[in-house]
Amino acid sequence: MPSIRKSLLQLIFSGSFMKRWNDKLRPMELVEVDKQGHKMILAFVLYILNAKKVPEKERNDLAEDIILGGIFDYLYRLVITDIKPPIFYKIKANPAHYYQLTQWVLDQLQPRVQPLGKDFWHKLKEYLTNEDSSLARRILEAAHIFASQWEFGLIKELNRRDEEINEIEENFFNCLKEYTDLVGVPELINDPKAELTRFINLCGQLRFQKRWSQTPRIPETSVLGHMFIVACYAYFFSLAVGACAKRRQNNFFAGLFHDLPELLTRDIISPVKQSVKRIGNLIKEYECKELDRRVFNLLNAGGYKDLVVRLKYYLGIDIGSEFDSTIIVDGEARIVTWEQLQNQYNEDRFDPKDGYLLKVCDNLAAFIEAYTATRNGIVNEQLQQAQWRIRNKYQQSSLIEGVHIGALLADFD
Known about the structure:
Blueprint: H1 6-13, E1 19-20, E2 30-31, H2 32-50, H3 56-80, H4 85-93, H5 95-113, H6 118-129, H7 135-155, H8 165-177, H9 185-190, H10 195-204, H11 223-240, H12 245-257, H13 262-265, H14 270-275, H15 279-301, H16 305-315, E3 326-329, E4 332-335, H17 338-343, H18 355-375, H19 381-393, E5 398-400, E6 403-404, H20 405-410
Antiparallel strand pairs: 1-2, 3-4, 5-6
Helix pairs in contact: 2-3, 2-7, 2-11, 3-5, 3-6, 3-7, 3-12, 5-6, 7-8, 10-15, 11-12, 11-18, 12-16, 18-19
């Protein structure tokens, strides 16, 4: 049975330290985990648009391949760290050199990811050692290029004296042109006012929104990066509890979008939401109205109804919340318990989404943010209280035998 270890959780979080464009003048720090979050949001959008006419089994397989490919690419990037893209692509162009680099990367990753099981490890090795031109990989490559180009747009004007800037800009444009056969890519390239482009731009702005905004931390983390971290954790825990394929996929994508409403409300901490009896409900009502106005109506106007349907399901807009466990029966969403989801509805045909597990992963990500800041010398009451509260919440808690959250947190001494 796959298991979750402290070292894996910390590895995923370490992208919060990893600087991007660190040889260029930047208006703000750009970090790897934020870029990965933006990339996977776009990969999800391209998946929905390009899988419309694909049979259900193939559609599920495509989603699985996109999620795994995104996680594998991120793990690879975490290990090779500061190798500049031009150097990396030169290495990649030489099969012998690229093989040597990849084998070294796999050696570094093996002790941290092998607890996830032989199947995950074999898929990781296969993905990193065998290039292909599958739809999943092409979607990920297009999303990667666009997310990097979006970042480049933030720094371009500040670096006009840099001799590389024009070359970088031209390279992005030429690379994206290779993916114009994918539904959605032409709009992203050619029409900044298109509804799809505006939605992706909105999501990108979540990198500007810092979590724990009134609490000094090292590193600071953004809402966008946090969403990606929670998505990865949700997928790993899905493996650990034996979730079916559709449940794993829904958990990843629900994690990836669970804080989307913070585009509209900013990061309102739990004590504020809970301090007044009705304030949590008022915030929820406001979020729903603003999501309708600025996100769902925007996408519906562009003809992206399928995208709206999935986002509403992940966010629990029409039933419960993002942290409720749900299934779909006869075309209608229902709230179920953890036990029902695990024992009765753990099948693709029920389209299950794991709200309880998602909340666990959200709390784990918050715990690691606070724990890491404390380990880096930032000691204050808010960080200490957050760690105590989460430890206490899960002290006696386990999802299933072998996945004990309290024991996992105890490893963070």
